[in-house]
């Protein structure tokens, strides 16, 4: 399969590596800075599941340089989504289906609107990966799961093909027959987990040790369930309990990628994740006071944390 990765960051390079390792043709469509970094340091994955070095990575800066594409692996951050529309439309014209693996939900209707409902699959990932100073992937978690599925009946064949190739790769793969529900379940979990860890600037251990603090995460799970249900997605009380058990069973030091981004002084996906949940709630008249409070607390760190960290405040 010809796979084009749009978003050659932690997720895109990790899964791109695993798919190339399994024999697929993987091309990275990148912007100028990332292209220079790759030219200087090459492209590599350092992983507990096995390292991988791209011997001769297929890197292009212009979408026009791509002739054949079956699938786009879309792994940009939510705040960069709009910047991909031109490339995605061109790749779509060449016959591509789009597999977005961003956290969140709002990007799905946005992409469907831009590209047509038939061509946008549902996807998500459970992994903890980041880029180091050379732009190489550091993957230390013992999970590296890719979950995907069709959002339209017309996508059965491409999902079948993807399952075939992904099953041969060194990743955990799940082809879901209810990917929308899976997306919402992950969204519920990530908004509670990233919300509470980023707002408190703490990993999960100390949060769990204070009942009053952990309760805020539990209330966010409840609010996410209400929003999903208002949008006719069957996220259940059992799913909330599962998410809570997951939060309870994580190692004390575990934290979210948004919290790590706050610590590193990077731009946060706050508007896409918590902002998106608030908009989805408002559209259906659902009250989400815990989500709004967490959003408000994190807001000052959304764009310009480096000044804080340099002064040693955070
Ligand atoms: N990292 C993780 O462990 C997990 C992340 N996720 C989710 O996956 C998504 C991606 O996260 P992650 O991989 O960490 O993000 P990264 O920031 O590591 O990677 C995103 C990449 O997208 C590139 N990019 C942005 N705009 C464009 C564009 N127009 N064309 C081409 N490339 C572009 C950026 O490149 P540039 O250098 O040009 O800015 C960057 O390299 C997020 O929604 C995140 O929440 C989900 C599960 C776990
Ligand atoms: C919780 C986790 C690590 C699961 O993949 C995640 O998605 C994130 O922190 O962004």
Automatic annotation (TrEMBL):
Work out whether the entry's keyword set contains Metal-binding: no
Stored SUPFAM superfamilies: 6-phosphogluconate dehydrogenase C-terminal domain-like, NAD(P)-binding Rossmann-fold domains
Q: What residue stretches are annotated with the Ketopantoate reductase N-terminal domain?
A: 3-151
Annotated InterPro entries: 6-PGluconate_DH-like_C_sf, 6PGD_dom2, ApbA, KPA_reductase, KPR-Related, KPR_N, NAD(P)-bd_dom_sf
Q: Which residues form the Ketopantoate reductase C-terminal domain?
A: 178-300
**Keywords of this protein's UniProt record, alphabetized?**
NADP, Oxidoreductase, Pantothenate biosynthesis
Q: Name one Pfam family in it.
A: ApbA_C
Involved pathway(s): Cofactor biosynthesis; (R)-pantothenate biosynthesis; (R)-pantoate from 3-methyl-2-oxobutanoate: step 2/2
Q: Which GO terms describe its biological process?
A: pantothenate biosynthetic process
EC number from the UniProt entry: 1.1.1.169
Select a single GO molecular function from the record's annotations and give it.
2-dehydropantoate 2-reductase activity
Cellular component per GO, a single term: cytoplasm
**Catalytic function, reaction form:** (R)-pantoate + NADP(+) = 2-dehydropantoate + NADPH + H(+)
| Statement: the UniProt record of this protein carries the keyword Zinc-finger | no
Which leading EC class covers this enzyme?
Answer: oxidoreductase
What family does this chain come from, according to its entry?
Belongs to the ketopantoate reductase family.
Described purpose of this protein according to its UniProt entry: Catalyzes the NADPH-dependent reduction of ketopantoate into pantoic acid.
Q: What is this protein called?
A: 2-dehydropantoate 2-reductase
């Amino acid at each position: 399969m010809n796979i084009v990765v749009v978003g050659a960051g932690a997720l895109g390079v990790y899964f791109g590596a695993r798919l190339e390792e399994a024999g697929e043709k993987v091309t990275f469509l990148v912007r100028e800075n990332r292209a220079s970094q790759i030219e200087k340091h090459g492209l590599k994955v350092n992983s507990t599941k096995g390292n991988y070095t791209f011997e001769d990575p297929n890197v292009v800066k212009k979408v026009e340089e791509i002739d054949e594409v079956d699938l786009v692996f879309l792994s940009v951050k939510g705040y960069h989504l709009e910047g991909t529309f031109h490339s995605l439309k061109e790749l779509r014209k060449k016959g591509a289906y789009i597999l977005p693996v961003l956290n969140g939900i709002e990007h799905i209707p946005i992409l469907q609107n831009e590209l047509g409902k038939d061509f946008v699959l549902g996807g998500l990932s459970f992994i903890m990966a980041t880029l180091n100073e050379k732009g190489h992937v550091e993957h230390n978690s013992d999970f590296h799961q890719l979950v995907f599925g069709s959002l339209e009946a017309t996508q059965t064949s491409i999902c079948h093909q993807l399952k075939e190739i992904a099953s041969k790769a060194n990743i955990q793969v799940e082809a879901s027959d209810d990917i929308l529900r899976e997306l919402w379940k992950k969204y519920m979990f990530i908004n509670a987990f990233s919300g509470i860890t980023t707002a408190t600037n703490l990993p999960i251990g100390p949060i769990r040790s204070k009942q009053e603090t952990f309760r805020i995460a539990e209330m966010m799970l409840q609010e996410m369930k209400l929003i999903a249900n208002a949008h006719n997605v069957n996220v259940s009380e059992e799913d909330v309990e599962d998410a809570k058990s997951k939060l309870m069973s994580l190692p004390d030091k575990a934290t979210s990628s948004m919290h790590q981004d706050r610590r590193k002084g990077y731009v946060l996906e706050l508007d896409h994740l918590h902002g998106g949940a608030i908009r989805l709630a408002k559209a259906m008249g659902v009250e989400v006071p815990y989500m709004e409070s967490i959003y408000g607390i994190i807001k000052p760190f959304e764009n310009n944390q480096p000044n804080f960290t340099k002064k040693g405040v955070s």
